[in-house]
Write a structure and sequence with these properties.
about 100 residues; 2 helices; about 20% helix; globular
Length: about 100
């Protein structure tokens, strides 16, 4: 599996640091910056812990590790961008960009 920008992917948190979380996406290591986790914006959301499952979106596939976001707003933006990028009316193209 290769991660691509605007792709939605379910991940598991594998490590937590003060600046963000390392995550695993089906064997691919990714990173969720602290400001891209809902706990940064709401005291009602607990901070990430190892073993947490998150629904994320790929923000930057060119970085090592790829940068992801667990914010609903970023997922919504990615969905709009995927729809705009679709080169065809073929629904299989859109389906290939989903997790």
């Amino acid at each position: 599996m290769t991660l691509v920008n605007h792709q939605e992917v379910d991940v598991i948190v594998t490590a937590v640091a003060p600046y963000g979380s390392q995550v695993d996406a089906d064997g691919i290591t990714g990173f969720v910056d602290q400001v891209k986790h809902p706990s940064w914006w709401s005291s009602d959301v607990p901070p990430p812990q190892v073993g947490d499952h998150l629904h994320t979106v790929v923000l930057d596939d060119s970085r090592t590790p790829p940068r992801l976001s667990a914010l609903t707003a970023d997922v919504d933006i990615a969905r709009v961008l995927r729809d705009r990028e679709c080169p065809t009316d073929d629904p299989s193209w859109k389906e290939s960009r989903k997790p």
